[in-house]
From TrEMBL:
Belongs to the class-III pyridoxal-phosphate-dependent aminotransferase family. It comes from the Bacteria. Its cofactor is pyridoxal 5'-phosphate. SUPFAM superfamilies: PLP-dependent transferases (SSF53383). Keywords: Aminotransferase, Pyridoxal phosphate, Transferase. One of its GO terms (biological process) is gamma-aminobutyric acid metabolic process. This is Aspartate aminotransferase family protein. It comes from Paracoccus zhejiangensis. GO terms for molecular function: adenosylmethionine-8-amino-7-oxononanoate transaminase activity; pyridoxal phosphate binding.
């Protein structure tokens, strides 16, 4: 950092870092990367890191998948860009929509493209507002989500996100309501069984709908497993308890599958893993295996028909992004779906998930300061606690999870601190040997940091 010409100093001078712990990056310098191989990335100094976070959940096929890069190159040569306005769109866009409905849990549906997951959630909210108004229910505008949900960073999707950091923006906007996070280990009351906890959350939903009026609520959004909230699988029976209540009140259930979609939980969709049928699916991140910024709203049969009718009524749906349905993004997504589903990546997640869980559980059992292991498939979190029995967290000023993640980085392992948890969501191509490397480095870092702080 002393040399002003270093990559780290140049990054520090010219970047406004997002979602980055500034004291830590000033002290350590940014990790500036040049390339990748399989699940590994390399920095400007030639140091290799096993990226146990798949980039940002999305690089599921690793960092140098030749077939994906070739699909991108071929499409850049054939037709490098187009929009999807005014009744024109690329052939790739047509094929991808067909494919997405085909691999979705829906018999029939319609697809709309965005450039990100945030925009896909914003788009879905605009669709619901448009649809309800068109059907004579203009008051149906409130959006229900949960605390600790992550739905993105645009004004609407940040309002849906249930994290306290959005207060600095004066968000959420009015009409975005957050219900209890379905994390039994943390939010279950003393003496409350998991079943009672779920019943309490269902009651809360029912009471909220009664208090606000069903005729003021546009939709309910949920990640099957909360991702950026700390990898939180739902309490047992949660979706089975809430879905009938939403149905009864005519409130669409939207599954935000930006992380869970395309294999992360061991099935194509997280809603399949948890046994519920949403009215629409939000996809992004793994949709292109991280090679292109793209999101999609996949409407199930009911919403597809109603949206189509609403649009027909005023002769258009006045919404879209310049790069919606970009042909290169669509070509990459078509290839990515094929790679994940037919080149053994989804199978690898299914096959190795029990091994991943067992390895992490063994680490937890050997440690005095891991209070909970939670997750499914290839998405897991270990939660650090000062005291296992009382679930007491470490003092926030100790920055325990940041220290663990920084120590991992020093050891050549990238993982992510989230609250007091460490998140591990490796690429789907991970081998057993690479998994063992991850376990070893992680445990070494945990032992070092816990010895310092405990
Ligand atoms: C990442 C994420 C988003 C936002 O996607 P961006 O592409 O970053 O805008 C939305 N929902 C979930 C569940 C996510 O994990």
């Amino acid at each position: 950092m002393n040399n002003p010409q270093s990559w780290e100093a140049r990054a520090d001078e010219y970047s406004l870092y997002g979602f980055t712990d500034l004291p830590s990056v000033h002290e350590r310098g940014a990790v500036v990367l040049t390339h990748g191989e399989g699940p590994y990335v390399f920095d400007v100094n030639g140091k290799r890191y096993l990226d146990a976070n798949s980039g940002l959940w999305n690089m599921v096929a690793g960092f140098d998948h030749k077939g994906l890069a070739d699909a991108a190159k071929a499409q850049y040569d054939r037709f490098p860009g187009y929009h999807a306005f005014f009744g024109r769109m690329s052939d790739q866009t047509v094929m991808l929509s067909e494919k997405l409905v085909d691999v979705s849990p829906f018999d029939h549906g319609r697809v709309f493209y965005t450039n990100s997951g945030s925009e896909a959630n914003d788009t879905m909210v605009k669709m619901l507002w448009f649809l309800h108004a068109s059907e004579g229910n203009p008051k149906r505008r409130k959006i229900l989500t949960r605390w600790n949900a992550y739905h993105g960073v645009t004004v609407v999707s940040a309002s849906m996100t249930g994290k306290p950091y959005n207060e600095v923006f004066g968000l959420p906007m009015e009409g975005f309501l957050h219900l209890t996070c379905p994390h039994y280990w943390r939010f279950g009351e003393p003496g409350e069984t998991e079943e009672q906890f779920v019943a309490r959350l269902a009651r809360e939903l029912e009471e909220t709908i009664e208090r606000e009026g069903a005729d003021t609520i546009a939709g309910f959004f949920a990640e099957p497993v909360m991702g950026a909230g700390g990898v939180i699988p739902p309490a047992k029976g949660y979706f089975q308890a809430i879905q009938p209540i939403l149905k009864k009140h005519g409130i669409p259930l939207i599954s935000d599958e930006v992380i869970c979609g395309f294999g992360r939980t061991g099935n194509t969709w997280g809603c399949q893993t948890y046994g519920f049928t949403p009215d629409a699916i939000i996809s992004s991140k793994n949709l292109t295996a991280g090679l292109f910024p793209m999101g999609a709203v996949i409407l199930g049969p009911d919403l597809a028909d109603r949206m189509q009718a609403a649009a027909e009524k005023i002769e258009e749906f006045p919404h879209g992004f310049t790069a919606s349905g970009h042909p290169v993004g669509c070509a990459i997504a078509l290839k990515a779906i094929d790679v994940v589903m037919n080149e053994g990546l989804a199978d690898n997640v299914k096959r190795l998930a029990p091994r991943l869980e067992a390895g992490l559980r063994a680490i937890m059992e050997r440690s005095e300061h891991i209070g909970e292991l939670r997750g499914i498939g290839f998405m897991w979190a270990l939660e650090a606690v000062k005291d296992k029995a009382t679930k007491t967290p470490f003092d926030g000023s100790l920055s325990v999870s940041e220290r663990i993640a920084n120590t991992c980085t020093d050891l050549g392992l990238i993982c992510r601190p989230l609250g007091q948890s460490i998140v591990l969501c490796p690429p789907f191509i991970l081998t057993e040997a690479q998994m063992d490397e991850m376990f070893e480095k992680l445990e070494q870092a945990l032992n070092k940091v816990f010895a310092e702080v405990a």
